[in-house]
């Protein structure tokens, strides 16, 4: 299996509760390496652009409000089969459905305030990494 990259966001519910380190530790223990990281306050334009695929969903407005409600930490993660590895450690979107030991089961507050984002395919990982990072900010 090849070493690949994925994109992660530690969401505002986690930064608010000072869980950046706790979440990153779970990512690292799952075999992922943080090769780029920055703490930002997402603008409305960034949040709307990032979640454009969801713009017809009923929760879109609230999701944009939530993602701009506090700082987030955007990260590039590297590892063997990084997209799947990250999705596995994140757990299901709704923490009520997430498996024991996953980040969302351990830390998420709700289906919306669910602590982490992770790309769902290698194709989207590349698009999402490019949305927030220049290549020279990524140090493997
Ligand atoms: P994912 O983050 O597990 O890939 P998606 O279905 O792509 O899940 O949804 C993107 C984000 O939108 C979720 O992580 C969550 O923050 C939010 N979201 C998803 N479904 C709902 C919902 O039914 N109500 C409110 N927010 C939702």
Automatic annotation (TrEMBL):
Its cofactor is Mg(2+). One of its GO terms (cellular component) is cytoplasm. It catalyses: a 2'-deoxyribonucleoside 5'-diphosphate + ATP = a 2'-deoxyribonucleoside 5'-triphosphate + ADP; a ribonucleoside 5'-diphosphate + ATP = a ribonucleoside 5'-triphosphate + ADP. It holds the Pfam family NDK. InterPro entries: NDK-like_dom (IPR034907), NDK-like_dom_sf (IPR036850), Nucleoside_diP_kinase (IPR001564), Nucleoside_diP_kinase_AS (IPR023005). Residues 3-140 form the Nucleoside diphosphate kinase-like domain. It is found in: Cytoplasm. GO terms for molecular function: ATP binding; metal ion binding; nucleoside diphosphate kinase activity. Belongs to the NDK family. This is Nucleoside diphosphate kinase.
């Amino acid at each position: 299996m090849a070493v690949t990259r994925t994109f992660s966001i530690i969401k505002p519910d986690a930064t608010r509760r000072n869980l950046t380190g706790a979440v990153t530790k779970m990512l690292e223990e799952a075999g992922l390496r943080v090769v780029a990281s920055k703490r930002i306050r997402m603008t409305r334009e960034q949040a709307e652009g990032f979640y454009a695929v969801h713009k017809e969903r009923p929760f879109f407005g609230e999701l944009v409000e939530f993602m701009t409600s506090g700082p987030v930490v955007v990260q590039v993660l590297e590892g063997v089969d990084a997209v799947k590895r990250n999705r596995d450690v994140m757990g299901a979107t709704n923490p009520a459905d997430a498996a024991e030991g996953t980040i969302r089961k351990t830390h998420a507050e709700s289906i919306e305030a669910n602590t982490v984002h992770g790309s769902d395919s290698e194709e989207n990982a590349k698009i999402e990494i490019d949305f927030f990072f220049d290549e020279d900010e990524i140090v493997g």
